[in-house]
What we know:
The strands form three sheets. Strands 7-6-5-8-1-9-12-11 form an eight-stranded mixed sheet, sandwiched between helices. Strands 2-10 form a two-stranded antiparallel sheet. The protein has a two-stranded antiparallel ribbon with strand order 3-4. It is globular, with a radius of gyration of 16 Å. The two termini are 17 Å apart. It contains four helices and twelve strands; from the N terminus they run E-E-E-E-H-E-H-E-E-H-E-H-E-E-E-E. It has one domain (4-189): Dihydrofolate Reductase, subunit A (3-Layer(aba) Sandwich). It has helices at 47-57, 67-72, 111-122, 133-140, and strands at residues 4-11, 15-17, 35-36, 44-45, 60-66, 86-90, 105-108, 126-130, 146-152, 160-161, 176-180, 183-189. By secondary structure, it is of the alpha/beta class.
Amino acid sequence: MGKVVMYSSVSVDGFIADQDDQPGPLFDWLSSGDVPLDASGALTVSQVSYDYTRAYWDQIGVTVVGRHVFDITDGWDGKPPGGIDHVVVVTHRPAPDGWDPSAPFHFVDGIEAAIAQAQQLAGERLVEVAAGDVGGQVLAAGLVDEVRMDVVPVVFGSGKHYFGSTAAQHLLEDPDVLQGQRVLHMRYRTRR
Protein backbone atom coordinates (compact mmCIF):
# COMPACT_ATOMS: atom_id res chain seq x y z
CA MET A 1 0.00 0.00 0.00
CA GLY A 2 1.02 3.57 -0.63
CA LYS A 3 2.17 5.76 2.21
CA VAL A 4 -0.02 8.26 4.02
CA VAL A 5 1.11 11.89 3.79
CA MET A 6 -0.35 14.79 5.79
CA TYR A 7 -0.06 17.98 3.72
CA SER A 8 -0.92 21.66 3.44
CA SER A 9 0.51 25.10 2.90
CA VAL A 10 0.99 26.72 6.30
CA SER A 11 1.87 30.06 7.86
CA VAL A 12 5.12 30.43 9.78
CA ASP A 13 3.09 30.31 13.01
CA GLY A 14 1.34 27.07 12.08
CA PHE A 15 -2.04 28.02 10.60
CA ILE A 16 -3.67 26.67 7.41
CA ALA A 17 -6.43 29.29 7.35
CA ASP A 18 -7.71 32.20 9.36
CA GLN A 19 -10.75 31.96 11.71
CA ASP A 20 -13.07 32.46 8.69
CA ASP A 21 -11.49 29.54 6.76
CA GLN A 22 -9.71 31.94 4.41
CA PRO A 23 -6.16 30.96 3.34
CA GLY A 24 -5.07 34.54 2.73
CA PRO A 25 -1.61 34.56 1.08
CA LEU A 26 -0.86 30.86 1.77
CA PHE A 27 -1.13 29.97 -1.91
CA ASP A 28 0.60 33.05 -3.35
CA TRP A 29 3.72 30.92 -3.93
CA LEU A 30 1.72 29.08 -6.60
CA SER A 31 1.88 32.21 -8.76
CA SER A 32 5.33 33.50 -7.78
CA GLY A 33 7.49 31.95 -10.49
CA ASP A 34 7.71 31.44 -14.20
CA VAL A 35 7.41 27.63 -14.54
CA PRO A 36 3.86 26.37 -15.26
CA LEU A 37 2.90 23.77 -12.65
CA ASP A 38 0.03 22.27 -14.62
CA ALA A 39 -1.41 22.26 -18.14
CA SER A 40 -3.70 25.21 -17.41
CA GLY A 41 -0.74 27.55 -16.99
CA ALA A 42 -2.62 29.29 -14.17
CA LEU A 43 -0.14 28.07 -11.57
CA THR A 44 3.43 29.24 -12.05
CA VAL A 45 6.21 28.50 -9.57
CA SER A 46 9.98 28.49 -9.34
CA GLN A 47 11.88 25.56 -10.86
CA VAL A 48 12.66 24.22 -7.35
CA SER A 49 8.96 24.32 -6.41
CA TYR A 50 7.99 22.72 -9.72
CA ASP A 51 10.40 19.80 -9.29
CA TYR A 52 9.27 19.20 -5.70
CA THR A 53 5.52 19.77 -6.11
CA ARG A 54 4.92 18.16 -9.52
CA ALA A 55 6.68 14.94 -8.46
CA TYR A 56 4.55 14.82 -5.30
CA TRP A 57 1.25 15.63 -7.02
CA ASP A 58 1.86 12.95 -9.65
CA GLN A 59 2.04 10.29 -6.91
CA ILE A 60 -1.27 11.11 -5.18
CA GLY A 61 -4.05 8.60 -5.74
CA VAL A 62 -6.54 9.63 -3.04
CA THR A 63 -7.08 12.67 -0.85
CA VAL A 64 -8.72 12.37 2.58
CA VAL A 65 -10.58 15.43 3.89
CA GLY A 66 -13.05 16.20 6.62
CA ARG A 67 -16.67 17.10 6.00
CA HIS A 68 -15.95 20.74 6.79
CA VAL A 69 -13.47 21.03 3.89
CA PHE A 70 -15.88 19.15 1.63
CA ASP A 71 -18.68 21.56 2.54
CA ILE A 72 -16.70 24.80 2.15
CA THR A 73 -15.45 23.71 -1.29
CA ASP A 74 -18.94 22.58 -2.34
CA GLY A 75 -17.43 19.15 -2.91
CA TRP A 76 -15.42 20.55 -5.81
CA ASP A 77 -18.61 20.12 -7.87
CA GLY A 78 -18.12 16.35 -7.77
CA LYS A 79 -14.69 16.45 -9.44
CA PRO A 80 -11.67 15.64 -7.25
CA PRO A 81 -9.18 18.53 -7.17
CA GLY A 82 -5.92 18.44 -9.07
CA GLY A 83 -6.77 15.39 -11.16
CA ILE A 84 -6.77 13.09 -8.13
CA ASP A 85 -8.71 9.86 -8.68
CA HIS A 86 -10.78 9.75 -5.46
CA VAL A 87 -11.65 11.78 -2.39
CA VAL A 88 -12.52 10.12 0.91
CA VAL A 89 -14.59 12.36 3.17
CA VAL A 90 -14.45 11.63 6.91
CA THR A 91 -17.94 12.34 8.19
CA HIS A 92 -20.73 11.14 10.45
CA ARG A 93 -23.29 12.37 7.91
CA PRO A 94 -24.34 10.86 4.59
CA ALA A 95 -23.61 12.46 1.22
CA PRO A 96 -25.56 15.67 0.63
CA ASP A 97 -29.05 15.45 -0.84
CA GLY A 98 -28.87 15.28 -4.62
CA TRP A 99 -25.20 14.22 -4.62
CA ASP A 100 -24.25 12.26 -7.76
CA PRO A 101 -23.54 8.71 -6.51
CA SER A 102 -21.19 8.11 -9.46
CA ALA A 103 -18.84 10.92 -8.38
CA PRO A 104 -15.55 9.46 -7.06
CA PHE A 105 -16.22 10.63 -3.49
CA HIS A 106 -16.55 8.20 -0.61
CA PHE A 107 -18.24 9.21 2.67
CA VAL A 108 -16.73 7.24 5.53
CA ASP A 109 -17.38 7.38 9.28
CA GLY A 110 -14.14 7.28 11.30
CA ILE A 111 -10.45 7.92 10.74
CA GLU A 112 -9.27 4.31 10.62
CA ALA A 113 -12.01 3.27 8.17
CA ALA A 114 -11.30 6.31 5.99
CA ILE A 115 -7.57 5.57 5.77
CA ALA A 116 -8.23 1.87 5.08
CA GLN A 117 -10.60 2.74 2.23
CA ALA A 118 -8.22 5.40 0.89
CA GLN A 119 -5.30 2.95 0.85
CA GLN A 120 -7.40 0.35 -0.92
CA LEU A 121 -8.43 2.91 -3.57
CA ALA A 122 -4.89 4.31 -3.94
CA GLY A 123 -3.10 0.97 -4.28
CA GLU A 124 0.61 1.80 -4.44
CA ARG A 125 -0.01 5.52 -4.90
CA LEU A 126 0.05 8.07 -2.06
CA VAL A 127 -2.83 8.81 0.25
CA GLU A 128 -2.83 12.53 0.98
CA VAL A 129 -4.54 13.67 4.18
CA ALA A 130 -5.51 17.32 4.43
CA ALA A 131 -3.95 19.05 7.42
CA GLY A 132 -6.26 20.40 10.11
CA ASP A 133 -8.57 18.52 12.44
CA VAL A 134 -8.79 15.33 10.35
CA GLY A 135 -5.06 15.34 9.63
CA GLY A 136 -4.32 15.79 13.33
CA GLN A 137 -6.58 12.87 14.20
CA VAL A 138 -4.88 10.65 11.62
CA LEU A 139 -1.47 11.64 13.01
CA ALA A 140 -2.64 10.96 16.59
CA ALA A 141 -3.83 7.51 15.50
CA GLY A 142 -0.31 6.71 14.24
CA LEU A 143 -1.43 6.39 10.61
CA VAL A 144 0.71 9.15 9.04
CA ASP A 145 4.00 8.14 7.40
CA GLU A 146 5.11 11.61 6.40
CA VAL A 147 4.28 15.26 7.12
CA ARG A 148 4.72 17.79 4.29
CA MET A 149 4.43 21.52 4.77
CA ASP A 150 4.78 24.36 2.31
CA VAL A 151 5.75 27.08 4.80
CA VAL A 152 4.82 30.55 3.58
CA PRO A 153 6.36 33.76 5.01
CA VAL A 154 3.28 35.12 6.75
CA VAL A 155 2.17 35.22 10.40
CA PHE A 156 -1.59 34.79 10.97
CA GLY A 157 -1.65 35.12 14.75
CA SER A 158 -4.73 32.89 15.00
CA GLY A 159 -6.83 30.62 12.87
CA LYS A 160 -7.06 26.94 11.95
CA HIS A 161 -4.05 24.96 13.21
CA TYR A 162 -2.06 22.74 10.85
CA PHE A 163 -2.28 19.85 13.31
CA GLY A 164 -5.87 20.58 14.36
CA SER A 165 -6.48 20.10 18.05
CA THR A 166 -3.80 17.44 18.53
CA ALA A 167 -2.43 17.88 22.04
CA ALA A 168 0.00 14.97 22.31
CA GLN A 169 3.67 15.05 21.36
CA HIS A 170 4.71 13.32 18.12
CA LEU A 171 8.35 12.96 17.15
CA LEU A 172 9.33 13.46 13.54
CA GLU A 173 12.61 12.74 11.77
CA ASP A 174 14.89 15.58 10.66
CA PRO A 175 13.36 17.57 7.80
CA ASP A 176 14.22 17.62 4.14
CA VAL A 177 14.02 21.31 3.18
CA LEU A 178 13.94 23.06 -0.19
CA GLN A 179 13.63 26.78 -0.70
CA GLY A 180 11.32 27.90 -3.47
CA GLN A 181 10.18 31.40 -4.24
CA ARG A 182 8.02 32.67 -1.32
CA VAL A 183 7.91 29.16 0.20
CA LEU A 184 9.93 26.56 2.09
CA HIS A 185 9.03 22.99 1.17
CA MET A 186 9.49 20.79 4.24
CA ARG A 187 9.12 17.03 4.51
CA TYR A 188 9.32 15.07 7.76
CA ARG A 189 9.05 11.31 8.11
CA THR A 190 7.22 10.20 11.24
CA ARG A 191 8.90 8.15 13.93
CA ARG A 192 7.20 4.91 14.82
